[in-house]
Write a structure and sequence with these properties.
The protein has helices at 18-57, 64-75, 84-90, 95-107, 129-149, 155-176, and strands at 81-82, 111-116, 119-127. The chain is mainly alpha-helical. A hairpin with a 2-residue loop joins strand 2 (111-116) and strand 3. Helix 2 (64-75) crosses helix 4 (95-107), helix 2 packs across helix 5 and helix 3 (84-90) crosses helix 4.
Length: 178
C-alpha cells in the first residue's frame, strides 16, 4: 500500500492495495470509502493472521481453536480455569465448536474438567500441568515469530496499530453483546 520502508518491496503483495481500493471508490462513494477500507483490510488481516498462526502452532500439533483455548485458560491466571461458556465467548467460538475443541484438548491430557467450587452442579475447564507448559511455550513461540514477522514496524507504529485494533475490538464487542 505505497510502502517505501526498507525491505517492504520484498514483502508479499496484498490482494487489496491502494490501487484496488481506488478502483472501488466510485461504487462506494466518499461516505463509505474509509469504512470499506477498515472492514476489508481488518477482515483480510484477521484471515491472514489465522492462517499464519495455524502454520506456526502446527509444530505442537495444535489447530488455531486449540491454541486460542489454551492461551485463554493460561491468560486467565491461576488456577487457569473457566466455564465452557466463558471460554467459548473468549475465543469467539460457538458452544458446539468450543465443545469439540475441549474434547480434543481433554483427549490430549492438556485440559481437564473439574467441579466448580461455587456450584457443584457445574464443571469448569482447567489446564493440566502439560497444558500449562504447552500454553506458555506456544505463546512464546507465536510472539517471537510474530515479532520477527512485523520487525519493520517500530514500537510507536506497533503501539498505534494495537490501540486502533483494541478500539475496534471494543466497539464490536459492545455491539455484539447487545
Amino acid at each position: 500500500m505505497g510502502d517505501d520502508r526498507p525491505g517492504a518491496r520484498n514483502a508479499r503483495p496484498s490482494p487489496i492495495d491502494d490501487e484496488v481500493l481506488a478502483l472501488l471508490a466510485p461504487y462506494l462513494g466518499e461516505r463509505h470509502r474509509h469504512t470499506f477500507d477498515v472492514l476489508v483490510l481488518t477482515l483480510l488481516a484477521g484471515r491472514q493472521l489465522e492462517a499464519w498462526i495455524s502454520e506456526t502452532v502446527a509444530v505442537h500439533e495444535l489447530d488455531t481453536s486449540s491454541y486460542f483455548a489454551l492461551s485463554a485458560l493460561w491468560l486467565a491466571g491461576p488456577p487457569h480455569r473457566m466455564s465452557a461458556g466463558e471460554l467459548a465467548q473468549r475465543i469467539v467460538q460457538t458452544s458446539g465448536g468450543a465443545t469439540k475443541t475441549m474434547q480434543r484438548l481433554v483427549g490430549r491430557g492438556l485440559v481437564r474438567r473439574v467441579a466448580d467450587p461455587d456450584d457443584g452442579r457445574r464443571s469448569l475447564l482447567e489446564l493440566t500441568p502439560a497444558g500449562l507448559t504447552l500454553a506458555r511455550d506456544t505463546l512464546d513461540l507465536v510472539l517471537d515469530a510474530f515479532d520477527t514477522q512485523i520487525g519493520d514496524l517500530d514500537e510507536p507504529e506497533r503501539e498505534g496499530v494495537a490501540a486502533a485494533v483494541q478500539r475496534l475490538v471494543a466497539e464490536l464487542s459492545e455491539r455484539l453483546s447487545r
